Amino acid sequence: MLTRRHFVITSAAMFSAPIAQAQTEAEDGADATTGTEAEAPAETLPEPAPRAPRTNPAYWDRWDAQVTPANYVPETTNPWGFHPRFLPQRVEANPGLTPGSIHVDAVARYLYHIGDDGTAMRYGVAIARGNLYEPGTYTIGRKAKWPTWTPTKAMIKRDPQYEKYEHGMDAGPRNPLGSRAFYLYEGNRDTLLRIHGSPYPKSVGGRASSGCVRMVMAHINDLYPHVEKGAQAVLYPPEDLVASKS
Fold first, then answer.
1. pLDDT of 47-80, one tens digit each?
2. I need a surface site. Which of 32, 45, 136, 147 has the fewest CB within 10 A?
3. β-sheet bridge partners, residue 149
4. How is the beta sheet containing 232-235 ordered, strand by strand?
5. Which residues pair with 126 in a beta bridge?
6. How far apart are CA 212 and CA 87, in angstroms?
7. What pTM did the predictor assign?
8. Which CATH superfamily is domain 4-16+56-245 in?
């Protein structure tokens, strides 16, 4: 039985150029120094457009095996060394929650996926650092296996090391979105918030991301087939916002 200590207190009583170089021609087409006809400047070809980032389904199974520990048992396998409470567990759900919905308790750092039998699967997560976490009620407008990633301009401004990926990063085990991603929408608008796997599993339990909710890749791989597009995702306030309202 979960205690209220593990839930966020809310009114809903839920879970807690390249730069082009200018060239100047001599007047009247003549070389000002020699008096001979100036050579026409060489034609400058445009830079090729950066290709879009890619994911290759032929590698998906191999990558899944790469991020899944040997002899993996979700409830006990913990090569990452975080607190055992962040391992997946089947728990009792609060009454009244919609089956299939996701609830992120930002205080306890838990994600709950609500079943249709009064229980929920609970996973440990990391949330965004500082004021980048955005509580709210969203819809999962898209879900993707081994997604590509493109940092936003705001992310690049905050973290200039992301500039080298301004045109996107191919999918793979080192990609910041990891092995699976749920894309959070408000209506038809992509909020740019994600619930996703992470190549930094030791961040689980903390505040580390640039706005998203992070999960261990092996854990989100287990969750992924059970979450439907269009499902509701509720992100509850973190401890600093809860404290400011109390």
1. 667 889 999 999 999 999 999 999 999 999 999 9
2. 45
3. 169
4. 89-92, 119-124, 110-114, 102-105, 232-235, 136-145, 180-186, 189-198, 213-216
5. 214
6. 19
7. 0.79
8. L,D-transpeptidase catalytic domain-like (2.40.440.10)
